């Protein structure tokens, strides 16, 4: 699909078991980068959830721009191998790190493995997340609450703590929050709460690391066509995903990844830290 061409508005009804496989989605999310300018030449990207969706689009874009990539993912091996193949096709190295980021020990081990292979981390993208639709607050069990918080926000603390000793002046940290952090979500209350926490974490860490000259920012996507959608909602709801935003369609991962590249580039955003970008289909959230 050419840049700027009309996007199909809605999808066909479909659902998958959690966490979802991108290669089985119809249509598959668009993650192919559009161009190359060498903004990440010889940089090292460490990204969670880089096997599919927004994370995959970021991994491919950064690789095309010259970065080697370490991808953390849960167990979607088919998607991860497909992403690795594409990254290596760009002439870059790719390390796959399967495991559960809700476990602190795994988070530390994954970072150490990436540093052992690449020597450092230049860009850290905390992107992986989970969500569970719950009609009422009473439906949210303690187990679900802990899983959501451990995966979505605790992991950011653990991974960033492990990565910081291997990041230099000029490095960049980018966290994935969500439009739900700003407007809430009646059926994703625990998920939205973690995304609000990510905004506060981003702003606080930005101030904390300013003297080290490491910038920290976030991206708050709106409704994007990813495996998280087809593995979280019933077929009819996933088919209507994105229909309620001003642009009347879901965004594609390839439309979100450039926000991360912009925030990672010292040439483009060297004077930006503690901020959030909003690729959300035109919804005004004043955040």
Structure report:
The chain is α/β, with parallel strands linked by helices and 287 residues long. The protein contains 10 helices and 7 strands. The radius of gyration is 17 Å and the shape is globular. The N terminus is likely disordered.
Number of strands: 7
* Portion in beta strands: 5-15%
Overall average pLDDT: 90
What's the tally of helices?
10
Oligomer: single chain
Instruction: Tell me the strand order in the biggest sheet.
Output: 3-2-1-4-5-6-7
What's the SSE pattern?
Answer: EHEHEHEHEHHEHHHHE
User: Regions with pLDDT < 50 over 5+ consecutive residues?
Assistant: 1-6
CATH C-level category: Alpha Beta
What is the name of the CATH topology? Rossmann fold
Form type: globular
Report the biggest beta sheet as strand number plus sense, adding barrel if it closes.
Answer: 7 strands, parallel
Helix fraction by DSSP (H/I, runs of at least 4) = 25-40%
Tally of structural domains: 1
Structural class: alpha/beta
- What is the CATH H-level superfamily? NAD(P)-binding Rossmann-like Domain
What is the CATH architecture assignment?
A: 3-Layer(aba) Sandwich
Cα-atom Rg, whole angstroms? Answer: 17 Å
Report how far apart the termini are.
31 Å
Could you give the topology of this structure?
Elements: E1 44-48, H1 53-64, E2 68-73, H2 77-89, E3 94-98, H3 104-118, E4 123-126, H4 142-163, E5 172-176, H5 180-183, H6 189-209, E6 215-219, H7 227-230, H8 235-239, H9 253-264, H10 266-269, E7 276-277
Parallel strand pairs: 1-2, 1-4, 2-3, 4-5, 5-6, 6-7
